[in-house]
Design a protein that fits this description.
The chain has 2 domains: 5-119, NAD(P)-binding Rossmann-like Domain (Rossmann fold); 128-283 and 313-338, 2-Layer Sandwich (Dihydrodipicolinate Reductase, domain 2). It has helices at 14-25, 40-50, 59-63, 77-89, 104-117, 131-141, 163-168, 172-175, 177-188, 205-209, 280-283, 285-300, 309-328, 334-347, and strands at 5-10, 30-36, 70-73, 93-96, 121-123, 148-156, 192-200, 215-222, 227-233, 241-248, 252-255, 265-266, 271-272, 332-333. The model has no long low-confidence stretch (mean pLDDT 95). With 349 residues, it is of the alpha/beta class.
Length: 349
């Protein structure tokens, strides 16, 4: 009988709970054998909920366990890069939530460790696994709508996160828009060469005082000539707004929001339906399961993961370009970010 893959979870927060339940209840080829979190109570709660036999005292205990094949890193962003390095050196396959880090230097060190160890690494850009967006990608890849010309992504949250989170998140481009940067690359199948961001504070002045923006339109130029736009806002009062449209030479394809039901209410005053799903964990529930299934299959069949470390790095470059564009009020070539990082490395003691 084929051996099951033993997983450990690092980080028992909101997304950690989602992934723990997927491994424990939805993927029979796997077993979740350990969990750890700086909050021991949170780790114990997940252990009880998912039947995990051990709440480890720390990550060192997990990395030292030869029975653990893979780890899911769902802790805070500032821990990701170092944990990837430690996991790789311990010979563990790695699923890591986005972003890897806010620093390209730290990302590169982590990716080098993965390369040297020869382990699998997948980054948690779950939207690639959403059936709606998979269908859009297929229409472009097969030429069903011809040569793509224009891409439009709408991504608006139902409400902003707490200010305490915003202050440590790296800002909207690195926290929220990073999903859309990845989605743009995935859908079009070409690299972005230039970014222009027009952004402001329209939802909550306190977000501006914290040094961030909450509303933006970002224009992307792709190497293959496609022009893309990303429409972001931290607050859409009607719910979680997630839509995509692509115009091609032979036609167009578009996705609409997802709803809790398909019922339509018709009265003498109006024809209406209920509001869209209001939270990302509801909207993308299946995609979270699909991405972990793909990660498991990459390990079992010894093939490249569908979202590589490089796929995790490039959206960070795009986010840094968007931030620079907003600050300087001009389009920014992605090549400028690499040059700027190299310059900073030479002057950093």
């Amino acid at each position: 009988m084929k051996k099951r893959l033993n997983f450990a979870l690092i980080g028992a927060g909101r997304i950690g709970k989602v992934h723990a339940e997927t491994i424990a209840f939805r993927i029979p080829e796997t077993a979740l054998t350990a969990v750890c979190d700086i909050d021991a109570g949170a780790a114990d709660a997940i252990a009880r909920r998912c039947g995990i036999p051990r709440a480890a005292a720390g990550t060192a205990e997990i990395f030292a366990d030869p029975a653990i094949d893979a780890v899911m890193i769902c802790s805070s962003t500032n821990t990701h890069a170092n944990l990837i390095i430690e996991a790789a050196q311990a010979g563990k396959h790695i699923f890591c939530e986005k972003p890897i880090d806010h620093s390209l230097e730290k990302i590169d060190r982590a990716l080098e460790a993965v390369h040297k160890a020869g382990v699998k690494l997948q980054i948690g850009f779950n939207r690639r696994f959403d059936p709606n967006f998979v269908r859009v990608r297929r229409s472009i890849a097969t030429g069903e709508i011809g040569t793509p010309h224009l891409l439009h992504i709408v991504s608006r949250d139902p409400g902003p996160p707490p200010l305490a989170y915003i202050k440590v998140s790296g800002g909207m481009f690195l926290d929220m828009t990073i999903h859309d940067f990845d989605m743009a690359r995935f859908l079009v199948g070409s690299e972005v060469t230039e970014v222009y961001a027009a952004a402001g504070v329209r939802v909550n002045p306190d977000i501006g005082k914290a040094g961030d923006v909450d509303t933006a339109v970002i224009v992307l130029r792709f190497a293959n000539g496609v022009i893309g736009t990303i429409d972001n806002c931290r607050q859409a009062p009607y719910g979680y707004d997630q839509r995509v449209e692509v115009l091609g030479s032979l036609g167009a394809i578009a996705t609409e929001n997802c709803y809790p039901n398909r019922a339509v209410i018709s009265t003498a005053e109006s024809v209406r339906r209920d509001l869209p799903l209001n939270f990302f964990m509801e909207r993308y529930a299946e995609s979270f399961a699909n991405e972990l299934q793909a990660f498991v299959e990459a390990i079992v069949h010894d093939r490249q993961t569908p979202v590589t470390g490089l796929d995790g790095r490039i959206p960070v470059v795009m986010a840094l370009a968007a931030r620079k564009s907003h600050e300087e009020g001009r389009p920014v070539m992605l090549d400028e970010i690499a040059a700027e990082e190299a310059r900073l490395e030479t002057i950093t003691p």
